């Protein structure tokens, strides 16, 4: 997938002007939030489970090499194969080699953000192999030539009328009189088209919500069952997963699953939680003849031990974007790459570079809702601030922004001068605003006042008000110690 994050501002403006998108996002603002709230309130120990899940991932990341080696041994012991991929290209080539060896012309795919990250579909198509997305949302956006706008609801940006239009355009055998006005009928139409694909594909590709070192198993959680068909009916099952998906034991996985579904969709558990451990064994009624796991790094190792280490705890539930006012306003495609919302604002610069995605950590109100709902207690606002610092240090900000911050810093480093300047400027601005209490326009503030009024400051600075209330002598506050 081409990185379009540098166009975030332009894409955000277009999204705000897109009436259809705004209708779709309006529905998204309420459903996820209310369902999560209800599900969490029904589980008194939810906060303890969050702390436990965080501890599990912290422990695993501290010993990541050991658990990955243990996982590889278990996969091999069960008859499977492990392929190590340092880069996205390494992972793509590993998938291609497996498909070529099987003579595959068609592969079915379960929903997988990691295959979106490595742009696997585009790659396979160029190599003459047809990928078929089997998750309903992924299938819809594949028909449209789009990428997911949400990590758990790929077609969240669409309305059912658009989906019906796409089905009637692409499904040439669809009777004109068939009613597709309801979600259930759209689902039935998709199932009718997709069901034969499972039996003709030689390779099924899935991601993994977790990998279990204790057993060599991969876990996927779905609500449609398409993942089960993808990994059991084809002759070959390929799991593509990033290295941080590893957890030590089945017990650890079960604890994380208890916070995953509640955070993602407000369910106690997803409808299907499926474990795969190696290829079909003698006596098994179904399952693949070959089982391959591709373990992808693609920049994760370089995050270990840095300010962004904690981002590797992410379990891709989507709770941060479900509660993010910026995501609600512009949707996922504005972020210009695979991962949108607050988690994307941290992860994307880590994987593709802040020079290509510096707008994303700046697209935040720092309201803190993302951190408050994250089941893994990831400090997303703090890490976005770290990226802003990196961006400033490398001179990637606009010149006006850098000079403005430099001007402010000159005064901030000199407390007496700062107090003098603010004691003069703030009453002046307050007086200019008058009784209205705001500015419709102001020099150097056009980026704000073009869309909204700018509140005027109160007539006295904070320290002046503090001194008046506490009786503290002048100069004791503000750094003169």
TrEMBL record:
The keyword Metal-binding applies. InterPro entries: 4Fe4S_Fe-S-bd (IPR017896), 4Fe4S_Fe_S_CS (IPR017900), FTHF_cligase-like_sf (IPR024185), LUD_dom (IPR003741), LutB/LldF (IPR004452), LutB_C (IPR024569), NagB/RpiA_transferase-like (IPR037171). GO terms for molecular function: 4 iron, 4 sulfur cluster binding; metal ion binding. GO terms for biological process: lactate metabolic process. Residues 305-335 form the 4Fe-4S ferredoxin-type domain. Keywords: 4Fe-4S, Iron, Iron-sulfur, Metal-binding. Transmembrane segments: none annotated. NCBIfam families: LutB/LldF family L-lactate oxidation iron-sulfur protein. This is Iron-sulfur cluster binding protein. It comes from Nitratireductor indicus C115.
